[in-house]
Amino acid sequence: MDLDVFVSAHRAEWDRLDALLRRQRRLNGAEVDELVTLYQRTATHLSLIRSSAPDPQLTGRLSRLVARARSAVTGNRRASWRDVTRFLTHNFPAAVYRSRHWWVPTALLSTLVAALLGWWIGTHPEVQASLAAPDALREMTRPGGQYETYYSSHPAASFAAQVWTNNAQAAAMCLVLGIFLGLPVLWILLLNMLNLGVGIGLMASAGRLDVFLGLILPHGLLELTAVFVAAGTGLRLGWTVIDPGPRTRRVALAEEGRAALGMALGLALVLFVSGAIEGFVTPSGLPTWARISIGVLAELAFLAYVYVLGGRAVRAGDTGDVEEHERSATVPTAA
């Protein structure tokens, strides 16, 4: 394509579009129709220039012009409570439900790894000795030791906020870094399961595994489920890079990436609940059975939320992606 000839042929249309966008008075019906037509044509021109004869200066000018025209045509849409409600009842549970074939196996395998690590550490004194000195190990596992006082070492509100921040960052990293073929996700999972396995092994070797489980289960069920969902989704995103399926790789990554970013917001809410349980329920004076029951109820509520609302939304055609009119991946065309 001869860029100079192309610019000469269409400059008048671009200038006319710019003039319409700068109008101070309200456009009449004919001018609005003209604006829409010129917007569509200019968007097509921009697509052709990007693919055939990319010129940074011209591409920048047309990109700004198309963005202004798109804003004028579609209007500035503001999020409403309807959007929040739809996200919580359709988009988020649908995205989690669609990823279940990734995060459920991730949860099962990760739990198995943590259990095996705990068994290995708990039954091999030489491994325990490599982790810390005997006095330090006794300080961690004794009644009133570090494992028990950890959950009451700070005021409940600040502790819950700190826990929520750390877990939300870990979940976001799993979702974002999944694009790198899922390898960083596997590393994050391994670190989490290693920490859990060390706690299981050391407390089991001290004959206090029941105490450890009584402390970890109230918040850990929901917390780990959220991490597993994030990890499974990150792994799915990494696999999309390798095998996008019938979609083009760009379209597949755009769709799965938007769903993953939306999932990050939803999981932040889930982790807020688990952080509140960890900050207020885990260190409370409630009996162990009561604390664990709260954790089990929270976990069952989340699973029911995903499988009931999410399954219903997926069967209705929801994929967890944003609504079609809000997607900007497809450039409009005009004859």
Topology at a glance:
Layout: H1 3-22, H2 29-52, H3 56-74, H4 81-98, H5 100-122, H6 125-131, H7 134-141, H8 146-149, H9 156-177, H10 183-205, H11 209-242, H12 249-281, H13 288-315
* Overall outline: elongated
Q: Treating each run of at least 4 consecutive H or I residues as one helix, how many helices?
A: 13
- Tell me the fraction of residues in β-strands, as a range: under 5%
Note the main sheet.
Answer: none
* DSSP summary, beta strand count: 0
Low confidence ranges: 325-335
Mean pLDDT across every amino acid position: 84
- The string of secondary-structure elements, in order, is HHHHHHHHHHHHH
What Rg, in angstroms, do the CA atoms define? Answer: 27 Å
Q: Bin the helical content.
A: over 70%
Cα distance spanning the termini: 19 Å
Structural class: mainly alpha
Descriptive account of the structure:
With 335 residues, the protein is mainly alpha-helical. Helix content is 79%, strand content 0%. It has 13 helices and no strands. It has helices at 3-22, 29-52, 56-74, 81-98, 100-122, 125-131, 134-141, 146-149, 156-177, 183-205, 209-242, 249-281, 288-315. It is elongated.
At a glance:
It contains 13 helices and no strands. The chain is mostly helical.
Identify the notable features of this structure and list them briefly.
335 residues; mainly alpha; elongated; disordered C terminus
